[in-house]
Amino acid sequence: MRKAFNKELLQIAAERNNVFMILADIGYGEIEPFAEAHPDRFINCGVAEQNMTGVACGVAMSGNTAITYSIANFPTLRCLEQIRNDVCYHNADVKIVIIGGGLAYGPLGISHHSTEDLAIMRALPNMVCLAPCDIPEAVAATRAMMEYHGPVYYRCGYKGEKDIHDRPVGKFEFGKAIEVKPGKDLTVFFTGTIGYNAKLAVQEAARRGIDCRLVSMPCIKPIDREAIIRAAAETGKIITVEEHQLSGGFGSAVAEVLADANVFCRFKRMGLPDVNVSKIGSQDYLRDQYGLGVDAIIYEIMEMSKK
Amino acid sequence: MSKESEVLARQVRLHCLRMVYRGESGHIGSMLSAADILAVLYSGVLNVDPAAPEKADRDRLIYSKGHGGAALFATLAEKGFFPKEYLDTYYKDAGKLSGHISHHIDGVEFSTGSLGHGLPVACGMAMAAKQSKAGYRILCVVSDGDLNEGSSWEAIMLAGQHRYDNLTMIVDYNRLQALGASEDIIDLEKLDVKLENFGWSTLTVDGHDHAALEKAFAKLPLQDGKPTAIICRTVKGKGVSYAENDYRWHYGGITPELYERGKQDIENMEY
């Protein structure tokens, strides 16, 4: 997915002469084409994420769009105050792009996992939060992000993601869910690349006679309230799936919509438990170990489907 | 007869004392420390226009020591960026002016309040100006406390590395910070040597001597191909006898009696 993102960004930077890339010494093998094509719009601030974010803000406040880009939580948590006070408060046109959302950098360990980001980023005023699930969504989201003026958090995957959508994604709109598959018995909402496990689980549930609606939510903020309320009314059962701590993330955002709308339905959030991820292994291994494997999702669908 | 900048500095000090007194707030020491620097900058040094505060070619002043923002608010009001009546609302419910500097008011480029934020943003503006070949200058006023922050030094390294000679850092170097003397907390000496080692040109001046400040600001950058640091030796609380060089006036509040004494001190201040 990171390749697809960088390719699309390079294309946009060729079309617009005010797109800057501001780095903190991360991006080997991916960012070189941008640096070579636009050396005057590229800067590597060194291993200094606070400065990277402040520089991006200053560049953006001078009439430009600035991208900050790094691994997992480096460009978010390390420089959270710069994002809050500088970027969001001034509504600066800065796009904060992380590579390796969730557990994508599995065996590198907790320092390289991004598992609280959605909760933290969506709490910031002015911030739009995106988490595309596959490459077509990632490309469409990149284009939409760059057409928008203002702070955006973009949670990119890493590599080797399988397509989830069978149909073209079409125009990407903030605050709009994208249906993967219609269904009448239960709705599974997901955000990000964990959607592939949700898709496999929904396919297995269909074999067991449960007709699930499967919906991608690549835009966590603003969130598609209408799609959530409609799912509650039409299917009466909702499961959310996210590769993120359960506290305050995507499932919480969906729950907030239901509670605020005074809508009641069967509801279950699936995400990472409130523990530090200390086991070692690949993204798929860690997903299985921490309750986000395909079998775990099938189990919750079948449990909720019991009379 | 006093020079224009000296008249302005006296007015700024009086405004600050009144604002802090009426607002029952703090940070008077930091405001008085920077009053002369701001008065000189806004008396012909900066290319800014109160009638067109967002004109494209304006010089950008980032005030990184946001806690002393009342001094900048007072300067801007005196220069006509917004009505002086706004100063009466400082720190008040439904007020126009907050306790830390805010960009929601004409003439303020950037909001600060947490230290270490100004220089990185100034670096970004310097980079963008270089890229677009714009001729305006970027100036950033920092404090001793600002230079405790790692993010400031990240920006200092970057500016030296990339030779941003359109960037000037003005250090309000009063050597006191919230809880005491800088030399007892984080001693920045020799600051000029440190900055020169990071690729900056430096000049140290008396931060209350208007002629010296004017001379320093007249020849920016000090050296082509290098960012400039003007290290202004200042006195925290300058002009108010009981507050001078006493770190407790980082936070201290002003009683009616101290307000009257402070006013007298400022009115009798000699340049």
Structure notes:
The complex is a heterodimer of chains A (about 300) and B (about 270). Chain A is of the alpha/beta class and about 300 residues long. Chain A has two domains: about 1-155, Thiamin diphosphate (ThDP)-binding fold, Pyr/PP domains (Rossmann fold), CATH 3.40.50; about 180-305, 3-Layer(aba) Sandwich (Rossmann fold), CATH 3.40.50. Chain A has helices at about 1-15, 30-35, 50-60, 80-90, 115-120, 135-145, 195-205, 225-235, 250-260, 285-290, 295-305, and strands spanning about 20-25, 40-45, 65-70, 95-100, 130, 150-155, 180, 185-190, 210-215, 220, 235-245, 265-270. In chain A, the strands form two sheets. Chain A has a seven-stranded mixed sheet, with helices on both faces. A five-stranded mixed sheet of chain A has the order 7-9-8-11-12, with helices on both faces. In chain A, helix 1 (about 1-15) packs parallel to helix 6 and helix 3 (about 50-60) runs parallel beside helix 4. The mean pLDDT of chain A is about 95. Chain B is an alpha/beta fold and about 270 residues long. Chain B has a single domain (about 5-265), classed as Thiamin diphosphate (ThDP)-binding fold, Pyr/PP domains (Rossmann fold, 3-Layer(aba) Sandwich), CATH 3.40.50. Helices cover about 40% and strands about 10% of the residues of chain B. The model of chain B has no long low-confidence stretch (mean pLDDT about 95). The interface of A and B includes residues 20, 43 and 90 of A.
